[in-house]
Each structure stands twice: as C-alpha cells, then as structure tokens.
Design a protein that fits this description.
The protein is of the alpha+beta class. About 20% of the residues lie in helices and about 40% in strands. The chain has three helices and seven strands; from the N terminus they run βααββαββββ. A hairpin with a 3-residue loop joins strand 5 (about 115-130) and strand 6 (about 130-145).
Length: about 170
C-alpha cells in the first residue's frame, strides 16, 4: 500500500467494519450467491500468494499476482466455485463446515474516487464433521469501491501466516 494514504473518518471506518461483519455473516450462513451479488465487484481479483519463509538477507521481491498462488480468481472463477457448492457434489463440504470469522485490526485509507484500501487480520475457526477442527490466521488487504450506501470488494489479497496448511482443503471463502 502506498505511503500517501489518508486515514478515513471514524464514520467511514465504522461503515467499512459493518461491511466486513455483514460479509462474514453471509459467508458463515453459506449465502454465497448473495455474497457475490452484493459484496463483490464485477472486476474482482482475489488472490492468495504462495508465501516463502525467507532469511532476512533474502531481498527478493514479494510475490505478485503473476507468481504461483493458491487462489488467483476473477469473478468467473468465484462464481464457478460458488455454483459448485450448490450442486451437492462437493464431498469435502457435505456435511458443510461450520466456520467462524474473527476480523480485527481494521485499518482503512481513502485513495480517492470512492475507493478505499483496507487491511486487517482474520482468524478463522473451522469445524468439519464430528471431530475435525482447523484454525487459520491471515492478513487481508482489500480495495473497496463505494457502491450506493455500501461497498464492493475490487481486490483482495490473502496472506496465510502458516507456511504449511494443516487443513485437508481450503474450500471456503475469506
């Protein structure tokens, strides 16, 4: 994120936080179509880069969307993943996981033209079947666009803290 950002007002910060709480609620309730239609911009780019653990002396640049990624999705990809969940054919989500999203340390910056950059920390607790539980902590950087009285996600970068994920799959949305 650039250094010439302006922090948003308390009112806008509150609106952005409310947007994220509403988004988490839709995802927890498995209302994926509603999430796509109300929270996601048509020109969305969602990516989760593969992160390397490097020594401090390793000065290679951070990953870009052109590098290897766990997710590197546009709206078409997200729509396909969402629709697949409604087919009943995603065995890894039948029965569905119970997921809780914990969103904190929200920072928001006005970048002009009705767009905002936001970063936060996310903690996800996921329960599958009878005795499977996994936890994920990650950082999330978004660009939001004002849309009427709300916002839509234009870009989302997800950065897992764990180098090796101990979960059986990552078939959930963040």
């Amino acid at each position: 994120m650039p250094n010439d950002r302006r922090s948003v007002s308390t009112e806008v910060h509150h609106q952005i936080c409310q947007h994220y709480y509403a988004e988490a609620h839709l995802l927890q309730e498995r209302q994926y179509r509603e999430w796509l239609s109300t929270m996601v911009a048509e020109d969305i780019h969602l990516w989760m880069p593969v992160v390397e653990v490097r020594f401090l002396k390793d000065k290679r640049p951070a990953p870009t969307p052109n590098d290897a990624a766990i997710f590197n999705d546009r709206l078409e990809d997200l729509t396909q993943r969402v629709e697949r969940l409604y087919t009943g054919q995603v065995w890894m989500e039948d029965p569905p996981s119970k997921i809780r999203y914990f969103i904190n340390n929200v920072e928001a910056f006005d970048v002009g033209d009705g767009e905002y950059e936001k970063r936060c920390n996310i903690f996800i607790q996921r329960h599958r079947r009878q005795d499977e539980m996994s936890q994920h902590s990650l950082g999330r950087e978004d660009r939001l666009r004002r849309d009427g009285s709300g916002f839509k996600v234009v870009t989302r970068k997800l950065m897992l803290d764990a180098r090796v994920v101990q979960d059986k799959n990552l078939y959930f949305f963040v």
